[in-house]
């Protein structure tokens, strides 16, 4: 999934892959590149308890290639690679909710100068995400590794202008 959602600057609606108020979902083995955001799991209050249990969501074994290329956001805020987000007092972040991200590989062209991750709250680094209840084994890949994965998938080697 590439070059998707770049016209959506509102919250996390521009993710290459977006789970919205979902449960029991698995996002695995995807290449996500050049999107406004990478992979987002969003919990929004939908008004009834049976729809509000955002639990058992697994984001694993994906490659997320991030971008700093949004001219509407020159400070590069609000561009997440992997994010679990909620805008209310839901259960998404509870340890028993079993929402996690494991074994994902990430490439960022810039530095970790802003929050690029979230587990219910913005996190300043990949280390912070790895130390959150979301799980472990998320790692950076090099530019050469990212380029090789993009070529193999037939994806563009840079974001479209």
Strand content: 25-35%
Biggest β-sheet strands, sense, barrel: 5 strands, mixed
Number of domains: 1
Q: SSE string, helix = H, strand = E?
A: EEEEEEEEEEEHEH
In terms of quaternary structure, the protein is single chain
Overall average pLDDT: 83
Question: Can you offer a commentary on this structure?
Answer:
- The protein is mostly beta strands and 161 residues long.
- It has one domain.
- The chain is 10% helix and 27% strand.
- It has 2 helices and 12 strands, in the order βββββββββββαβα.
- It has a 5-stranded mixed sheet with strand order 1-4-7-10-11.
- Strand 10 and strand 11 form a beta hairpin.
- The longest helix has 11 residues.
- 34% of the residues are buried.
Summarize the model shown.
With 161 residues, this protein is mainly β.
Give a quick set of tags describing it.
5-stranded mixed sheet; single chain; 161 residues
What is this structure's SSE topology?
Layout lengths: L14 E6 L5 E3 L2 E3 L3 E7 L14 E3 L2 E3 L16 E5 L13 E3 L2 E3 L9 E3 L1 E3 L2 H5 L8 E2 L2 H11 L8
Parallel strand pairs: 1-4, 2-5, 3-6, 4-7, 5-8, 6-9, 7-10, 9-12
Antiparallel strand pairs: 10-11
């Amino acid at each position: 999934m590439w070059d998707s959602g770049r016209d959506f600057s509102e919250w996390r609606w521009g993710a290459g892959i977006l789970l919205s108020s979902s449960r029991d979902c698995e996002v695995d083995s995807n290449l996500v590149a050049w999107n406004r955001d990478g992979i987002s799991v969003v919990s929004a209050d939908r008004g009834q308890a049976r729809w509000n249990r955002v639990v058992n969501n697994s984001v694993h074994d994906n490659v997320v290639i991030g971008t700093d290329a949004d001219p509407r956001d020159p400070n590069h805020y609000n561009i997440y690679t992997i994010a679990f987000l909620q805008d209310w007092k839901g259960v998404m972040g509870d340890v028993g909710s079993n929402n996690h991200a494991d074994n994902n590989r990430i490439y960022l062209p810039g530095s970790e100068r802003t929050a690029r991750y979230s587990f219910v709250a913005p996190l300043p680094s990949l280390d912070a995400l790895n130390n959150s209840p979301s799980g472990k084994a998320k790692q950076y890949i090099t530019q050469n590794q990212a380029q090789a994965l993009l070529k193999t998938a037939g994806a563009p080697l840079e974001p479209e202008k």
